[in-house]
């Protein structure tokens, strides 16, 4: 039997490995602007900026405990397409909002708009929408994972002026992807296998529409049967929540603790209870299985998730005089 000391040493060793894995290739982060991001970016120009954003996130969380999952997803979807430039927030006839992975799916815009409006009242033209979304993501990590404190989160991003729906299809990893495809998509953004498995853990919080899994439940690859890799009891439960004629139903992505960013997700993946095909993909390779097992430790996952989200927040950022600081987040300045 392992002693308490040996168990602690094992966890410490894993944490060291995780930290090294998560920060390796940091120089491969796409774009160079991230080097100009820094903590406390608005300490002088808008001292209450982070408090104002936090208040809007807490208000939204009190109304809907699944809200953090929506913001974490939106942050990832923003940064992976054109970088962390708030292009996902723009409204136009062909915006990212209208892309298939986002249409009628992304939510949480109202809380971001509230935060931005409050910031404009106090510090007009100072805080970018890209940073509003980035700080909102930081806050939602903490709200969904009580006890987790995210330190040294950076600011300094500026807003893009282009948003194209088709780019969501070419840049975002899909819910039907296998491990090789996922690995390739993440690598394009300077993210490694550990980041892939850790960031998939965001599927422990938030909701999804039934339409995305109906074929997996009722007619997997044209067989007329469920995906055989799924736990049969899990299939039965999902069929109750997602009848064939209800693609618009919203369900919890993780059933046991749906409003917590936690490690139950990884136990579910191991047991065939991952909601998406991409979740199941994590257990189809030796590397994926090992990383799933490692992340079942809460200390490991909490540490690795924050590190991976910081890397996401560095992708192809606009800084300095690039882009603009939008007055409202859904439209470019005229």
Automatic annotation (TrEMBL):
Molecular function terms, GO-annotated: heme binding; lactoperoxidase activity; metal ion binding; peroxidase activity
Gene Ontology CC annotation, any one: plant-type cell wall
PANTHER family for this protein: PEROXIDASE 25-RELATED
Binding site for heme b: 203
Cofactor binding note from Swiss-Prot or TrEMBL: Binds 2 calcium ions per subunit. Binds 1 heme b (iron(II)-protoporphyrin IX) group per subunit.
Xref: Pfam families: peroxidase (PF00141)
Site entry: Transition state stabilizer: 73
Range of residues in the leader sequence: 1-28
Cofactor(s) recorded in Swiss-Prot or TrEMBL: Ca(2+); heme b
EC number: 1.11.1.7
Domain of life: Eukaryota
The name this protein goes by in its record: Peroxidase
Positions that bind Ca(2+) 1: 78, 81, 83, 85, 87, 96
Organism of origin: Marchantia polymorpha
Top-level enzyme category: oxidoreductase
UniProt: substrate binding residues: 173
Record-linked InterPro entries: Haem_peroxidase, Haem_peroxidase_sf, Peroxidase_pln, Peroxidases_heam-ligand_BS, Secretory_peroxidase
Major localization listed first in the record, in broad terms: secreted
Cysteines engaged in disulfide bonds, as pairs: 46-123, 79-84, 129-329, 210-242
Catalytic activity: 2 a phenolic donor + H2O2 = 2 a phenolic radical donor + 2 H2O
Function: Removal of H(2)O(2), oxidation of toxic reductants, biosynthesis and degradation of lignin, suberization, auxin catabolism, response to environmental stresses such as wounding, pathogen attack and oxidative stress.
Residues that hold Ca(2+) 2 according to the record: 262
Family the entry assigns: Belongs to the peroxidase family. Ascorbate peroxidase subfamily.
Keywords: Calcium, Disulfide bond, Heme, Hydrogen peroxide, Iron, Metal-binding, Oxidoreductase, Peroxidase, Secreted, Signal
């Amino acid at each position: 039997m392992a002693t308490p000391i040996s168990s602690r040493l094992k966890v410490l060793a894993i944490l060291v490995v995780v930290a090294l894995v998560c920060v390796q290739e940091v120089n491969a982060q796409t774009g160079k602007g991230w080097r100009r991001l820094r903590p406390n970016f608005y300490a002088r120009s808008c001292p209450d900026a982070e408090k104002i954003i936090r208040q809007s996130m807490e208000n939204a969380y009190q109304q809907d405990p699944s809200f953090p999952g929506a913001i974490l997803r939106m942050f990832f979807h923003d940064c992976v397409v054109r970088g962390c430039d708030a292009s996902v927030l723009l409204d136009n006839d062909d915006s990212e909002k209208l892309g298939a992975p986002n249409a009628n799916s992304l939510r949480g815009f109202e809380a971001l708009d509230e935060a931005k409006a409050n910031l404009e009242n106090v510090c007009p033209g100072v805080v970018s929408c890209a940073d509003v979304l980035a700080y909102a993501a930081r806050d939602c990590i903490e709200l969904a994972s009580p006890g987790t404190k995210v330190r040294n989160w950076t600011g300094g991003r500026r807003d893009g002026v282009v948003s194209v729906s088709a780019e969501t299809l070419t840049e975002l990893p899909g819910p039907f992807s296998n491990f090789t495809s996922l690995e390739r998509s993440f690598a394009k953004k300077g993210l490694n296998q550990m980041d892939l498995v850790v960031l998939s853990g965001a599927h422990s919080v938030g909701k999804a529409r039934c339409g995305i899994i109906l074929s997996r439940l009722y007619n997997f690859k044209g067989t007329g049967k469920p995906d055989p890799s799924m736990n049969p009891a899990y299939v039965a439960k999902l069929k109750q929540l997602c009848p064939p004629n209800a693609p618009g139903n919203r369900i919890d992505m993780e059933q046991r603790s749906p409003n917590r960013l936690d490690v139950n997700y990884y136990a579910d993946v191991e047991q065939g209870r991952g909601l998406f095909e991409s979740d199941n993909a994590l257990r189809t390779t030796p590397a994926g299985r090992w990383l799933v097992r490692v992340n079942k430790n809460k200390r490991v996952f909490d540490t690795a998730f924050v590190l991976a989200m910081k890397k996401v927040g560095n992708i192809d950022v606009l800084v300095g005089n690039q882009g603009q600081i939008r007055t409202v987040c859904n439209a470019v300045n005229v």
